[in-house]
Design a protein that fits this description.
- The protein starts with a strand and ends with a strand.
- The protein is built from 2 helices and 23 strands.
- By secondary structure, the chain is mainly beta.
- Strands 6, 8, 13, 14, 15, 19, 20 and 23 form an 8-stranded antiparallel beta sheet that branches. Strands 12-11-10-9-16-7-22-21 form an 8-stranded antiparallel beta sheet, with no helix packed on it. A 3-stranded antiparallel beta sheet has the order 1-2-3, with no helix packed on it.
- It has helices spanning 33-37, 225-231; strands at residues 5-7, 12-15, 20-22, 44-46, 52-54, 61-67, 74-77, 89-97, 103-109, 116-121, 133-138, 141-146, 156-164, 167-172, 175-181, 193-195, 197-200, 203-208, 211-219, 242-246, 255-256, 266-269, 273-279.
- It is globular and about 40 Å long.
Length: 280
């Protein structure tokens, strides 16, 4: 189409040659030459302003681990002192819930409400398709935000929490939800981290997560709202302070790589977990 111009809805104009002019791309992440060589657009998402977002470099596919109900299902990560987060922090993950268990841990360290845990809490029997609350626990205490009508079963959601001093902020799909003042005495311990599972001194088998998870991140800084929103759709987030990053993109086996500088890999265990492939 040399010498001609193609104008797409929104702010982007493509002219002849290899020049792209117009508005600044809003989100282009994990690109590779292979994406364009594939000749498909299955790895893009159309936005309301007429732009296209490239979701990832695997031609629109991501992996996840599905936990199907056995309380032994878990990813365990050996203790590292980097995980004893007593100050500012950020925890985030992609979660897909399929069963309204009352207490569904995404990630935890120590018994429930120990050094930290991020949990989705059922809304009870009022509306079984609405999980109702996101909870963050430390030192045996919890702070909670309500997500009525937004956090639902059988849908993927990006769940995040930040703690800055004594202020906790929750996020769902990159949008800020409730904030609270939270100042527990945070214990440090030598316990493992668990993904999709939480230990508890009163429940020998522990708590389980029924659904699927991927891209679990742990930061020793409080990320900003824009950092969370701008990085939730990429598997290579920018910024400092990442002390744990389990992408869960292996697709098979039981070793879960930690892509952070800590490089502390996890181990997948249980009786009825399954690897899955997602197509964007």
């Amino acid at each position: 189409m040399a010498g001609s111009a193609l104008t797409l809805p929104g702010t982007t104009t493509i002219t002849g040659g290899n020049t792209l002019v117009g508005g600044t791309p809003t989100s282009v992440v994990e690109t590779s030459q292979a994406d364009f060589a594939a000749g498909t657009l299955v790895n893009t998402q159309s936005n309301s302003n007429g732009t296209l977002t490239l979701l990832d470099a695997a031609n629109g596919t991501k992996k996840d681990v599905s936990f199907n109900g056995d309380r032994a299902n878990q990813i365990s990560v050996p203790h590292n002192t980097a995980y004893n987060l007593t100050g500012d922090l950020t925890i985030e993950a992609w979660a897909y819930l399929v069963n309204p268990t009352a207490f569904s841990p995404i990630i935890s360290k120590g018994d429930s409400g120990g050094t930290f845990d991020l949990v989705v809490q059922s809304g009870g029997g009022v509306n079984p398709n609405n999980y109702g609350w996101i909870r963050f626990g430390q030192g045996g205490s919890y702070t909670t935000t309500e997500a009525v009508g937004a956090l639902r079963l059988n849908q993927w959601h990006h769940v995040a929490v930040t703690k800055t001093g004594t202020t906790v902020q929750f996020y769902l799909n990159g949008v800020a939800l409730g904030t609270s003042t939270f100042a527990p005495s945070v214990p440090t311990n030598a316990s493992s981290i668990y993904i999709g599972h939480a230990t508890d001194s009163f429940l020998t088998a522990g708590y389980l997560f029924r659904g699927a998870l991927f891209d679990v991140r742990l930061w020793n800084v409080a990320r900003t709202a824009s950092e969370i929103a701008n990085n939730m759709n990429t598997l290579t987030p920018s910024g400092s302070g990442l002390v744990g990053h389990w992408k869960m993109q292996e697709g098979s086996g039981t070793s879960i790589a930690d892509s952070s500088a800590t490089a502390n890999n996890g181990t997948l265990a249980g009786t009825d977990y399954a690897w899955q492939t997602l197509t964007s």
